[in-house]
Amino acid sequence: MNLRSTRLLILVILEYLKRHKVWILGGVALIIITIIFQTKANFFHSQNSLRIGLIGTYQEHDLPEKVTELISSGLVEVDSNGRVKPNLVTGWEVNNDATSFKFKLKDSLRWVDNSPIKSSDLEFSIPNTSVSFPDERTIQFDLKEPYSPLPSLLTKPILKKGTLLGIGPYRIKKIEKSRIFITKITLQGNDSKLPIVYIRFYPNEKVAITGFSLDEVQVLLGLSNPKAIPTNPLIGIRQMTDYSKIVTVLFQTTDPLLRNRSLRQALSYQAPEVKGEESADNPYPPSSWAYNSDSKKYLSNPEEAEAALERAKSSLSDDKLHSELILTATLNLEDVGKVIVESWKKLGFDAKLRVESGIPQNFQALLITQSIPIDPDQYFLWHATQTKTNLTKYDSKRVDKDLEDGRKIITEDERREKYFDFQKTLLEDAPAIFLYFPKYNIVYLKKVEPLLNKISILGG
Known about the structure:
By secondary structure, this protein is α+β, with helices and mostly antiparallel strands. It is built from twelve helices and 19 strands. It has helices at 3-19, 21-41, 65-71, 205-213, 261-270, 302-313, 318-321, 334-345, 379-382, 397-406, 412-429, 449-454; strands at residues 49-55, 76-78, 84-86, 89-94, 100-105, 129-135, 138-143, 170-178, 181-189, 196-202, 219-221, 235-241, 245-251, 278-279, 324-330, 350-356, 365-371, 432-437, 439-445. It has a seven-stranded mixed β-sheet. It has a six-stranded mixed β-sheet with strand order 14-18-13-17-15-16. Strand 15, helix 8 (334-345) and strand 16 form a beta-alpha-beta unit.
């Protein structure tokens, strides 16, 4: 091509650009916007990726368990009966008075960056406990007071001190924040067959449901009320009973009316079994090695309720019996609260429901979801000295002694004996009604179910 032809071509191109500059500039702008939007919002999603929504506000030091379970594993794990067994350790040694524990790491353990795991890489925060590392594989815990359930505190997935490195199968690729709180996390699988996982955090359920409806996420974990999602054949719901929590009515045992044990028993017998839920007739799940099947049973027993009420009348005036009885419930338990109040009215009580967004400091009866520990040790919930967590102000010397002994004894058989007696006494005194173990709900688009199965979320 000669010089004249080249000049002519350039002039033609310039004229074309001049005439169509608006369209050309618009196209360039669209490409730039698309690139930025894809970078920020991941608009075009890979077929091998999952977008998961979690509810709550978190920082890097308190990542939710559903995230840490994907990036690491705990030193110990718990079987279906609540027994703690070794996972990343070969086992542990404990002295006779349960004040010193030594755990030995398994050989050849490596962090996700392929560096060897040393005991000193780990960091633990356990009150009244000194942690030392006698060698690269040994972790020693020295306690000020005997505490035989200590191994149950080590189920949390381990991370390398000062980092977010675990042992896999995922590693954190990117974290996005709004001020101090995490808004998004990107997880990259160590195996290329694993899907990329994008986790988005929502401040509350209402915003999370909106995000799911707008296809920001394909999965919502831990939704308390899955009925809030419109029925759709493309949407699946998986429910699993969460035995780490229990829905309970707590009685204020210092209340002028509710300090009467027979009256508390009457209310407990009258309370209904909640339809569709797994009833909890005990502070422990039935699968627990410490569960006492012979302990007192309540719920949906109007005949026993009437008998207990007659016993209560012998020490309560008519004015007291006909005084107002207020059940306070948290927002997500309002429907359950209505059913309980109606059942109490059938006994002749002037029962009323009050719904509050938080946990009140003062109450007569409180309907609440409580966390319960892996180990049968429920010292913090029921011991008289635990004024901040023993919300009922329950005070029983016998229960206190059982709980004190249970955390000092090492052998399972001897501990079981103490916890059997604890259950027998607690249920006879009826400072609370144990209603049911709630469900953990997962809402998801059915098309991503194969990917969810790959990362075991649907399996709990």
